[in-house]
Amino acid sequence: MLSGILIFNQKGENLIFRAFRSDCRPRLADIFRIQVISNPQHENIYLVAVTKSNANAALVFEFLYRLIMLGKSYFGKLDEEAVKNNFVLIYELLDEILDFGYPQNTDPDTLKMYITTEGVKSAIANSPTDSSRITMQATGAQSWRRADIKYRKNEAFVDVIEDVNLLMSATGTVLRADVNGQIVMRAYLTGTPECKFGLNDRLLLDTSDTTGAAKSRGGGGTSGAGKATRAAAGSVTLEDCQFHQCVKLGRFDADRIISFVPPDGEFELMRYRATENVNLPFKVHPIVREIGTTKVEYSVAIKANYSAKLFATNVVIRIPTPLNTATTTERTSQGRAKYEPEHNNIVWKIPRFSGQAEFVLNAEATLTSMTHQKAWSRPPLSLSFSLLMFTSSGLLVRYLKVFEKSNYSSVKWVRYMTRAGSYEIRF
Amino acid sequence: MSSGGDAKLFARGKVAELRTELQSGGKKDKNYSAKKIALKKIVANMTMSNNDMVALFPDVIECMNLPSLEIKKMCFLFLVNYSRLKPEAALKALPTLVEDMGDNNPLVRALALRTISYIHVREFVEATFQPLKRLMQDNDPYVRKTAAFCVAKLYEHDKKMVENSDLIDRLNRMLKDENPTVVSSVLASLVDIWGRSESISLTIDYTSASKLVSILADCSEWGQTYILEALMSYVPQDTAEALLLAERIAPRLSHSNSAVVLTSCRVLLYLMNYISDEKHITSLSKKMSPPLVTLLAKPPEVQYLALRNAILILQKRPEVLRNDIRVFFCNYNDPIYVKVTKLELMFMLTTKDNISVVLAELREYATEIDVHFVRKAVRAIGKLAIKIESAARQCIETLLELVDAKIPYIVQEATVVIRNIFRKYPNQYEGIIGHVISNIDDLDEPEAKAAVIWIIGQYADRIENSDGLLQDYLATFHDETVEVQLALLTATVKLFIQRPTKGQQLVPQVLKWCTEETDDPDLRDRGYMYWRLLSTDPATAKQVVMGQKPPITAESEKLDPRTLEELCLNVGTLATVYLKPIHQVFRAARPRRLQPSPALQRPRIEDGTANMLEYNPPAASLAATSTSNSGLATIITTGNPISPVNAPPPPTFPVSANPVPGGLSPNSAAINAADSYFNNIGSQQMASMNLGGRDDGDVGGGGVQTQYVVTQNSQQVYQPQLAGGAATGELLLL
């Protein structure tokens, strides 16, 4: 496992050096500074894990990203300033979350009970009874949740956030369209609530072993029905899902029920992937003509493919221009377009884009002549946007039930959003 | 949360100043804030490897007993860092630590235990033993968990002392603990110990394995990973057991932590070796595909790891990922290492049904900016032509279109792959020779030059001005690299054989250069060889030089069966990033092998005698352990590493432990055995030559495998046969 954790700033100065095994010498810091300097990078620091053994690489990367998350949870963000301002606390954390290089409990909620920033002091950790409570928490089956949480008003917010990825060829064929979704939950619930969560999904599995489960789940379609009927019946096929550690995976595998005791506050309940029947919110039709070696003409049409009741915000279309572009002129039917020489892009921004609307940009780039003419690589045109109350996969939350001993009632809110992941159109 | 403003303390300080600061404050300083600041400065200096701080040892130890956990933790950190430099000064801290291990507060007990076991000083290690035994039975699970790891730490400090004590037995007994976190920690500790000693074997029986799987759900994500890793030590004795366990582990594939996902894949792949029913294997393989693809939505480092492992898993179980080729199409913004690996997977997954889509995609890549990536894309097109015969024409057309863009590096790359296509399909596509030759002036890289010279030589009788073209190159013969010189020599001889009148002036000149005016032994040897051949018997010379060549294949990154098996037992580890035999990368790593059992599936009958040798001794050891098996798992210590029960199999023995994947006739077992023997030798030599560094990640260096491999990753892989020791073989065949 890990022999040490090091943090460097951009200049290669060592900010944190914690060794867990005797094969991790201070000299290592110099080796990294002189010979390596590469990823994994975050903000303006380098996080480095060192090992001499054939360690579980997935575990190492996951841990480093967890460390970043932990830093964000403690200090707001993890950058050079935060590290320098809290270096003692970081050492304290590292000592706690790694033992002999093996990651231990890394749940921020539990850790914050006994490793705190100076304002709060390690007060509760001083009496033995409190300490046992902490240790039970840190080693217990539900290390992510304290038992004594109380809220006057019990609320749960569910955010379904989808990143839609598109890769369209120059001829207009969809090379790839898929959705990476995440369901983020903010739970403000008293006690130890048991939640059950239902979606209009139908997991893609061997038909033989879904038959039983499929009937018991929502939707109208019978088992073995084709994709079309399923889509018509309002259910979505998820290619794969991954769950937060609080979800009982055995239960999900057996009868497809998402059942869990949530951590307090915000967490990512699940991630999923869908590739069938992806609704693309925007259709883009670019026409790009290179005229001789001195001019490129653009005509880009973009149409919103969702209900007229909805509107997307912050729609940004990036239209690549050749590297030797001198000047550009743009005309748009909506929004503003501007040439950004540093990115070799024409950036067209439409702050509010109503459903079914269609806008056009006409532009012209004048090129400087070059002695060494090299073909332009034509990078793809890319889009970013966010669209509320719309899911590209068609996923909907069917229900969220909360069960707790005291039987309180709770309020649940659901919000849907679709964003552009990597939404690229070649031309 | 407010962030502490400690940045100003992060500065170099002088020992004397810090000492005064540490002693200041006195009674007025109630919260010891002055001392805290001084200690923080010391910790900062420690990080900046300001080793003067060692001088403050006595002062720091004095602070250790102050009633503040924060101060204590800083003092402990100082101690862990510097006690090796000043063991005698550190000793003064020992009583405090021992006392703290008996503290009422479980957090303090665990902290002291954790700290003392980090210190690599004999007295500290010795002083840990007794308290550790007590703390292993502490009533607080947090302390027990810490104690479990502590055994592995002590084992790192002093193997002998731990082996001579009963610590490992005690640790073993802790597997019965009712707390899942403790159990997972014990397993992590046991596996760690197993990895550092040849004399210890770890055995888990079915009942224990089953119990471990049942507590998976109650462990943290890391704990789950430790348990899954430990399950690799369970050897199924019955195929139904293996299946049942695999099906219970499969739900873990939905975990959001990629370590859990990949380690689950590892265990599943391992268990599949013991499952007899092909149908179940296929269904398990299918379950692995979606989670692997989902990992592509993770940060690039994890993506890369997942992709490298996909390359591995695909070779072992081709049914995985079969229908998923589109997800491996590159995004414009992917980092280059992700793109190149995706390209490799695309190549592996291309079939004659999806070739059109793939070719269109590759053409797109060939117009990107990154030269490195463009070259790989062009090379991939050429490799596809070789892999899928029915699509060769389509690939060649794509290549020629790209060549027409006249971008120098594309032309060069295309020339090289077209040469390979000619080799694969002789007398089929010669119509394009003219097209290739027309770009001859654009070539300035040795590999491309050698390729075009090969084409000129091979088709000297069809190219009108072949002698003229060769003469142009010969004019600068002495300035060329050896690679090009070798190609020129062979091409000139070929020209002479096919068109004696045109070549008769060139040959003597080139032979003279090669035999008299060069320092390169390969060039000289080949020169003499041709000379003798031509002067003795021109007819035979023609037969030899223009004879039929063995076909080439395009299977790059194809691991030899032994390495493949080894890596499949290590899915998700660092070795899978390199995709090299583990000993080349981690010399100290303890090898993991497929353990024999009645349930182990071997589709093809192997060389019986070799297998028996591997079979017998472990079977005996199994019998011995299963009887003494009282706890959840058993770990056996034998002080004497030569004990026959636990002796590792002799590493040089030519056992091909797994079936050779299709393509070879069943009776070629003997050849396989021989091949794997030589492969083995090759890799050992590599290891002893210390070549196991960070090459490009291809297996080209791994000894004598398939002889004619066109790989995409390295330009050298094909060439060593021209330039290196195998040159003699090449010479006869060209």
TrEMBL record, chain A:
SUPFAM superfamilies: Second domain of Mu2 adaptin subunit (ap50) of ap2 adaptor, SNARE-like
GO biological process: endocytosis; intracellular protein transport
UniProt cross-references to Pfam families, sorted A to Z: Adap_comp_sub
Keyword Ribonucleoprotein: no
GO CC terms of this entry: clathrin adaptor complex; clathrin-coated pit
Residue ranges constituting the MHD domain according to the UniProt record: 153-426
Protein transport listed as a keyword: yes
InterPro entries tied to this protein: Adaptor_comp_med_subunit (IPR050431), AP2_Mu_C_sf (IPR036168), AP2_Mu_N (IPR043532), Clathrin_mu (IPR001392), Longin-like_dom_sf (IPR011012), MHD (IPR028565), Mu2_C (IPR043512)
Keywords: Coated pit, Endocytosis, Membrane, Protein transport, Transport
Localization, UniProt: Membrane, Coated pit
Family the UniProt entry places it in: Belongs to the adaptor complexes medium subunit family.
Protein name: Clathrin adaptor mu subunit
Naturally occurring in which organism (per UniProt): Penicillium frequentans
Automatic annotation (TrEMBL), chain B:
Protein name: AP complex subunit beta
Protein function: Adaptins are components of the adaptor complexes which link clathrin to receptors in coated vesicles. Clathrin-associated protein complexes are believed to interact with the cytoplasmic tails of membrane proteins, leading to their selection and concentration.
Residues spanning the membrane: none
Keyword Protein transport in annotation: yes
Clathrin/coatomer adaptor adaptin-like N-terminal domain sequence ranges: 20-537
InterPro entries for this protein: AP_beta (IPR026739), AP_complex_bsu_1_2_4 (IPR016342), ARM-like (IPR011989), ARM-type_fold (IPR016024), Clathrin/coatomer_adapt-like_N (IPR002553)
Domain of life: Eukaryota
GO molecular function terms attached to this record: clathrin binding
A biological process term (GO) from this entry: vesicle-mediated transport
Transport in keyword set: yes
A GO cellular-component term linked to this record: membrane coat
Gene3D superfamilies: Leucine-rich Repeat Variant
Keywords of this entry: Membrane, Protein transport, Transport
Pfam families (alphabetical): Adaptin_N
Family to which this protein belongs: Belongs to the adaptor complexes large subunit family.
Annotated localization: Endomembrane system
